[in-house]
Amino acid sequence: MVARSRIAGSAGAEGRVVARFNAPRAARVEADANGRPLEVNHRAVAVAREEWRVVDRWWTEEPVVRRYFELVLESGENTVVFHDGAWAGSVAGQAADARPGDGAPAAPLGGGWYTQRGA
To answer: What is the pLDDT of residues 38-52, one digit of tens each?
Structure first.
């Protein structure tokens, strides 16, 4: 979170406005059968540099289950996208899918795609 002063909006405790830095934005992602992005917002993916999963707050009624991809688009632009939601093979969003290479599921069940930078 970044505090900005003298900007219209909801004021913080000291009269400052609090804005989210690099907040996720909805993205249109075309993925292959394994859930790996092929296109992000109508731009082709050249290279998938890295992939990781985050499973957090599993003990709550709303766990965070995300699959992230760091990508290079054909234009040379770097971007990070993630799918927010459960994946096939997970148990109530709490899966052994947090570790790559353990037979981790790939197909999304619900949620949506988002980008945090680029695209």
So the answer is: 999 999 999 999 999
